Structure formats: structure tokens, C-alpha cells
């Protein structure tokens, strides 16, 4: 599934670079774009879940945070590469009209590299030890999604809400609102300058994402989340205060303080999710929780932010929106137990089934219907 989603993501993204324009193909052009974007969205959920479990389930129990941080680096690294290449196209290779004519296609066409990555993964990486145990024991559920929601539906919702606040904030950059707003007449920066600043912010985000994975192995997943969401809360209002000055150095400072919290609240996610769900439904659990969190958090965040600016004439409402989303995620993460180091193998399924939420007082020693189903 990981290889399939990697290749599907690469192919869909590359094909966007070949799309006809509305002027040449009419309404079929945006329809084709929409279909390719849907394929990207389908790919993203499975791609993230597969990569996360490949990393975390291979890692020693005291290094899962660091191992799980590597798939997380894909988002800030992708943002860094995308904005960097786009800045290169708008500033040097195809400035002005040339970018609108053909330059915008180049970053999409470069996604052919993802297809090569998918092939490499297929040739070089083994299945995780936990997956091999499940296959050997023939304990894979026939309908894992049904089993997941029947036994752990509330856990999926809470896990999704943990991600929603961070994803809503992250989409301010990855979804294009900050680049669009900072280069609008209201602020007045040149588009290439903004793209370079966002690429710099992505680099900071990347560093603190990995640092958060390391910290989660030392001080726990929840404590790292608390620090990350605290930093994210503190940045919600200063972010736009600094951008609104119209000063390029202040834009860089804004991206710095904003992406520190983003990274610290993103790095522990892979390990936390993997330790929340039992082995038999773990792939479905982490993938669906991530996808739902992205829908609830980031999918509409840029649109909501733009609508709030248009309705209020300022950015204070956007900051309040980010504060609200962050507080929801902070509450959600407080409802889960830190299970750092729990045995992730199928042999420990009974313990994994219970106790992921702080109000779940059951133990694996107490017979109950949930455990007997396995």
C-alpha cells in the first residue's frame, strides 16, 4: 500500500503539470484538476500511515519518537522544496508572464521523482516486524475499518482532533494563505520574497519537527505536545502582527516563531498514533485519524481565513480561529494516555486494546467483549 500510494501521489502530481488550460480545454480542465487533486488526497492518507508504521514498528521502543519524526519531516521538507523551486521559477527562470504561461508546470513535473522513490521503497524495504507477525499468525481482520470503528471509534475522533489544530495552523503556510496574504496589496511584499521567507520557515519547521521526535523519547509524547501547542498558541496573534508591518525582516521573524510551535506539535504524532491503536487495526487507525484530522483542520483553513479577513477587514479573527483550533487539540491530547514504549506486537494485543484514553479504566487482565473478539 505504501508503494502504491507513493506512485499514485507522484503520478497525480506530475499529471497536473500536463493539464490543459481553461482557454484550450474549457471546463474539462478544472474537472481534470479536481480529479487529480482527489487522487492526491486519497494517496496522502495511505502514504502517511504506511510510512509511519514502517518507521515506528521497525524502531527500538526508546527511539520510536525519533524514527517516527522522519515521515513527519516530509511536510516541511515538501514545503521547503515546493516554495524553493517556485521561488526559483518566479524570480529567475520564468518571471512575470512566463511563469503563468509555462513556469508553473515545472514544480509539478518534477514530482516524477516520487515514482522513482516508490520503486526504490519496493526494492529496498521489508515489511515491518509487526505486520510480519500478524501475517504469520493470520490475525489480520477481514474488515479492519469496520473493526476499528466498532471498537475504537471514539479514539479515532480524539486522535483526529489532536491533529486538527496543528494542521489548521500548518495550512496557513502549506495551503497558501500566508503567501497569498503577505503578497497582497494589504501587505505589499513581492511574491518571490514571500516564497523565500516561507521556504525559510519550512526549514525551521523541519528542524523543530525532528527535535520534537527526539524530545518525545526523553520527556514523553504528551509533554512534548503540551510544549508544542503552548508555543503555537503564543504565536497565533504575533504572527499576523508582524506580517502586517510590511517589513521583510519581520516576516522572517513571524515565520520563525510560528513554525517552532508547528514543529513541536507535529514531531511526536507518528509515535503517539502508533502507540494508541492495537496492532490488528493500527494501519487503519493511524491513517483514518490523520485523514480526518486533515479534513477537520487544514482542508478548509485557508478558505476560512480568507473569508474572515474579507468579513472583518483584519487578521484578528484569523488569529482567534487558530487559537480555537489549537485549544481543541490541546484538550484532545490531554484525553489520551502517554503509552511510550508499549509493546506494539500482536502478542500484546490485549493490552493495546484498552487504556488509550485517560477515562478508560479497563485493564488487559479484566475479561471483556473487546478483548475476547481477538
Largest β-sheet summary: none
Tell me the radius of gyration: 21 Å
Shape: globular
Number of helices: 20
State the helical fraction: over 70%
Q: CA-to-CA gap between the ends?
A: 24 Å
E-strand count: 0
Mean pLDDT: 90
Domain Major facilitator superfamily (MFS) profile: 1-341
Transmembrane segments: 35-56, 77-98, 104-121, 154-174, 194-213, 225-243, 249-267, 288-311, 317-336
Subcellular location: Cell membrane
Protein name: MFS family permease
Written overview of the protein:
With 374 residues, the chain is an all-alpha fold. 75% of the residues lie in helices and 0% in strands. α10 (144-174) runs antiparallel to α18 (316-334). It is globular, with a radius of gyration of 21 Å. The two termini are 24 Å apart.
What are the key terms here?
globular; disordered C terminus; mainly alpha; cell membrane; 75% helix; Sugar_transporter_CS; MFS; MFS family permease; transmembrane helix; 374 residues
Task: Summarize this structure briefly.
This protein is an all-alpha fold. It has 20 helices and no strands.
Amino acid at each position: 500500500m505504501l508503494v502504491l500510494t507513493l506512485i499514485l501521489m507522484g503520478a497525480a502530481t506530475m499529471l497536473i503539470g500536463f493539464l490543459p488550460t481553461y482557454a484550450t480545454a474549457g471546463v474539462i480542465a478544472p474537472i481534470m484538476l479536481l480529479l487529480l487533486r482527489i487522487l492526491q488526497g486519497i494517496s496522502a492518507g495511505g502514504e502517511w500511515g504506511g510510512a509511519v508504521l514502517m518507521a515506528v514498528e521497525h524502531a527500538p521502543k526508546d527511539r520510536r519518537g525519533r524514527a517516527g519524526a522522519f515521515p513527519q519531516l516530509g511536510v516541511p521538507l515538501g514545503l521547503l522544496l515546493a516554495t524553493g523551486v517556485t521561488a526559483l521559477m518566479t524570480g529567475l527562470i520564468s518571471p512575470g508572464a512566463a511563469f503563468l504561461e509555462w513556469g508553473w508546470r515545472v514544480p509539478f513535473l518534477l514530482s516524477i521523482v516520487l515514482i522513482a522513490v516508490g520503486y526504490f521503497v519496493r526494492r529496498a524495504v521489508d515489511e515491518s516486524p509487526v505486520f510480519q507477525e500478524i501475517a504469520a499468525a493470520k490475525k489480520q481482520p477481514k474488515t479492519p475499518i469496520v473493526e476499528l470503528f466498532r471498537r475504537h471509534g471514539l479514539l479515532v475522533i480524539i486522535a483526529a482532533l489532536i491533529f486538527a489544530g496543528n494542521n489548521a495552523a500548518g495550512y496557513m503556510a502549506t495551503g497558501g494563505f500566508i503567501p497569498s496574504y503577505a503578497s497582497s496589496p494589504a501587505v505589499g511584499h513581492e511574491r518571490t520574497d514571500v516564497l523565500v521567507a516561507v521556504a525559510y520557515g519550512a526549514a525551521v519547521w523541519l528542524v523543530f519537527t525532528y527535535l520534537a521526535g527526539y524530545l518525545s523519547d526523553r520527556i514523553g509524547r504528551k509533554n512534548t505536545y503540551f510544549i508544542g501547542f503552548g508555543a503555537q498558541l503564543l504565536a497565533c496573534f504575533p504572527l499576523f502582527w508582524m506580517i502586517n508591518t510590511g517589513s521583510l525582516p519581520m516576516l522572517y521573524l513571524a515565520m520563525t516563531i510560528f513554525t517552532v510551535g508547528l514543529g513541536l506539535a507535529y514531531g511526536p504524532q507518528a509515535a503517539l498514533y502508533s502507540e494508541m491503536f492495537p496492532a490488528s487495526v493500527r494501519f487503519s487507525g493511524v491513517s483514518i485519524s490523520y485523514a480526518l484530522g486533515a479534513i477537520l483542520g487544514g482542508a478548509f483553513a485557508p478558505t476560512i481565513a480568507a473569508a474572515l479577513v474579507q468579513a472583518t477587514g483584519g487578521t484578528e479573527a484569523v488569529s482567534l480561529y487558530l487559537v480555537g483550533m489549537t485549544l481543541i487539540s490541546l484538550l484532545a491530547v490531554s484525553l489520551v494516555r502517554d503509552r511510550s514504549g508499549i509493546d506494539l506486537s500482536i502478542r500484546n494485543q490485549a493490552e493495546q486494546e484498552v487504556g488509550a484514553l485517560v477515562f478508560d479504566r479497563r485493564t488487559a487482565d479484566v475479561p471483556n467483549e473487546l478483548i475476547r473478539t481477538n
